[in-house]
Amino acid sequence: MKLREQISTGERVLWEGKKDTKVSVFEAIFNPLMPFALIWFIFDMGFIAVFSQEIPTDGAFLGSMIGFFALHLMPVWIYLFGVFTAGLKAKHTEYLVTDRAIYIQSGIFTTVTEMKPFTDLAHVSVRQGVFDKLCGTGDVISVCNHTSTSADSSSHRHGMNIENIPDYEYVFKLVKDYQEAIYSDTMYPNDLRPRENHGYNTTYIRKDF
């Protein structure tokens, strides 16, 4: 099902976009696991080169050595899997901003759709990594206003991150504008509600940027 078909009746789409594939692949290649995987690969290749000169022709022993190094190179396989799937993940990631919420649809084999209403958002910010700056993209980061007294309180403040998009500045202003307006209207309905908005369930009318 397309992401547009999953929004509520009467909900108005303000912006939609996809994750930039090129930036996602670059970030997957140059991630903190890369030096570790490279050192691990060189280390194992050195052992393989030494053993290959002294390995007996016995097929059973040769098979066991191949199996051992195939398993021992697991950190390298995990790193390569992340690089190869980064493009597919980006290709299958869609973003949608409506006048009520943020929607994200993602997944390669299993599709997952997440929705976060503006009333749940407390903070919105912009983040640009190295490759974002090189490619002219950025991330819009949102944090929920729910807090928790448990040790794992960060999971209760998870927002919705719109990552690696070219029009990140526009989306940031859009989300920030609606988050401030709807959150203020919910918390202080009698003081800060615009005249055009006669209740929380109606469409908020905002000025253009």
Physical arrangement of strands within the biggest beta sheet: 1-2-3-4
The radius of gyration over CA amounts to 24 Å
User: What distance lies between the first and last C-alpha atoms, to the nearest angstrom?
Assistant: 32 Å
Please count the helical segments. 7
Strand content: 15-25%
Q: Mean pLDDT score, rounded? A: 82
Helix share bin: 40-55%
List low-pLDDT spans: 147-156
Textual characterization of the structure:
The chain has helices at 21-29, 33-54, 59-72, 74-91, 130-135, 168-187, 189-192; strands at residues 13-18, 94-98, 101-106, 112-117, 121-127, 138-144, 162-165. It has 209 residues and is an alpha+beta fold. Helix 1 packs antiparallel against helix 4 (74-91). The chain starts with 12 loop residues before the first strand and ends in a 17-residue tail after the last helix. Mean pLDDT is 82; it is low at 147-156.
